[in-house]
């Protein structure tokens, strides 16, 4: 089996799961995994340049609120809201986030947090538009056109497509000239500039890709939960810190690192909250945090850094065998 065909067969297997397992909780868990794969991969596009953003919840919330306001107040279907949410998230990135790209290291990460906090305050105060801290409820209207489904199976396939699209996009960017420029910036920005790389342009393009896809995910997730409020839509923990942790644990700046991190940490987080959260307040977060510390200490480069040497040994071996067969 060729390495390029493995993702295709894996997608076929994932696509067949709802045909055999239709448990609501089981499908819900897979939906969350697909969602965090998409969100973490989108976050990771910017991290290719070495920038660790903790403010991506802002783009998520802008997309979610834009679509919800258009739907609730003006009756515009969510599919149109996808493009509107994308546009507003991109505007937010241009107006508020691009100036922060001048900052480096922890200063950029800290400043990006403030971006989301400002939008929370705006959403709370602007009651005429956002309904304030009470939030907005999306009316349930069954049908694909309105993105209203009676069970989790359609959502399963919808978020599976989003996860596959995000990985495909990230792979194209990683192997493009933009991806090489971003990794050069992460390694040494001054050296990249000396070699003629327009580092500012590369980082801005990466930010726009990352923010735009995150805004789109906000639209779809709002339709999945049917209710949003400022603290939820702009939640730093859920939509900024969690994708960052997934990327760091899996392998920041790689293609498959955010995917592996999401696959491992999403079920762990849900399990701890469901089965340990009621025993002692904060116990689930303590265990989750200890697990994160252990992974980061044992594998500083993420899970991918441990698995990559193994696959590199396997690939040349398979190539040598095929070449020997061709010669014989």
Number of helical segments with 4 or more residues: 15
Q: What gap, in angstroms, lies between the N and C termini?
A: 21 Å
Query: What is the gyration radius calculated from CA atoms?
Result: 21 Å
Percent of residues in helices comes to: over 70%
Mean pLDDT: 86
CATH topology: ABC transporter involved in vitamin B12 uptake, BtuC
Domain module tally: 1
> Would you identify the regions where 5 or more consecutive residues have pLDDT less than 50?
317-328
Q: H/E series, N to C? A: HHHHHHEHHHHEHHHHH
Quickly describe the structure.
The protein is mainly α and 328 residues long.
Task: Provide a descriptive summary of the structure in words.
- The protein is mostly helical and 328 residues long.
- The chain has a single domain, classed as ABC transporter involved in vitamin B12 uptake, BtuC (Orthogonal Bundle).
- It has helices at 6-20, 24-47, 57-74, 78-97, 106-125, 127-130, 153-174, 177-187, 189-194, 199-225, 230-233, 236-250, 257-275, 283-298, 303-327, and strands at residues 136-137, 227-228.
- Helix 1 packs antiparallel against helix 7 (153-174), helix 2 crosses helix 13 and helix 3 (57-74) packs parallel to helix 5.
- The longest helix has 27 residues, at 199-225.
- The chain is globular and about 55 Å long.
- The two termini are 21 Å apart.
- Residues 317-328 have low confidence and may be disordered.
